[in-house]
């Protein structure tokens, strides 16, 4: 079901029955963790296209469709690690949430840190969710399924 508003309004998409491919941007510098996330997303049988970038600088060029990312799709969801080279996840999150074109994209922080300071800080920076990475693939698959269920079946999001 889809509701399209008139000029100047926000288009709301109810994705419960949608066959739309979900665009996910994974911002992760560790290739092993990126492979694990990719495997978990595949295991969750989520209809998606996963784009992976290694750091916050490349994530911004992807999100702003600059340089080699001119044809990049707009993500429906960003999975963000905190500890990244060049521009860390906290800095990237702050930039995303300040940007009028990007701030509505849900950002799920998926990181190894369980520090209360990190959790508090990313929520102050307007993260949509904070999840500590589990060490086991089965647990990560459950988390990915719950992310997919909530963000693409339960929650209502603006199209852009």
What does this structure look like?
The chain is built from 5 helices and 8 strands, in the order βββαβαβαβαβαβ. With 160 residues, it is an alpha/beta fold. It has one domain (32-155): 3-Layer(aba) Sandwich (Rossmann fold), CATH 3.40.50. Helix 1 crosses helix 5 (137-154). The longest helix has 18 residues, at 137-154. It is globular, with a radius of gyration of 15 Å. Residues 1-17 have low confidence and may be disordered.
Summarize the helices and strands and which ones pair or pack.
Layout (H helix, E strand, L loop, with lengths): L1 E2 L8 E2 L8 E6 L3 H13 L4 E6 L2 H8 L13 E4 L8 H10 L8 E5 L4 H9 L4 E4 L4 H18 L2 E2 L2
Parallel strand pairs: 3-4, 3-5, 5-6, 6-7
Antiparallel strand pairs: 1-2, 2-8
Helix pairs in contact: 1-5, 2-3
What is the CATH topology assignment? Answer: Rossmann fold
SSE-based structural type = alpha/beta
Total number of distinct structural domains:
1
- If helices are DSSP runs of H or I spanning 4 or more residues, what is the number of helices? 5
Query: For the residues shown, what is the average pLDDT?
Result: 83
- CATH class, named Alpha Beta
Judging by the overall fold, what is the CATH architecture? 3-Layer(aba) Sandwich
Order of helices and strands: EEEHEHEHEHEHE
């Amino acid at each position: 079901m889809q509701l399209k508003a008139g000029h100047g309004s926000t288009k709301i998409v109810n994705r419960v029955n949608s066959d739309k491919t979900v665009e996910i941007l994974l911002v992760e510098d560790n290739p092993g963790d990126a492979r694990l996330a990719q495997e978990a997303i595949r295991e969750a049988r989520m209809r998606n296209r996963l784009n992976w970038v290694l750091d916050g600088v490349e994530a911004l060029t992807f999100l702003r469709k600059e340089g080699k990312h001119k044809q990049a799709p707009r993500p429906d969801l960003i999975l963000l690690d905190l500890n990244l080279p060049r521009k860390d996840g906290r800095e990237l999150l702050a930039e995303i949430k300040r940007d009028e074109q990007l701030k509505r994209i849900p950002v799920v922080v998926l990181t190894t840190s369980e520090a209360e300071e990190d959790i508090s800080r990313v929520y102050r920076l307007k993260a949509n969710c904070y999840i500590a990475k589990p060490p086991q693939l089965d647990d990560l698959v459950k988390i990915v399924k719950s992310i997919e269920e909530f963000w693409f079946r339960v929650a209502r999001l603006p199209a852009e």
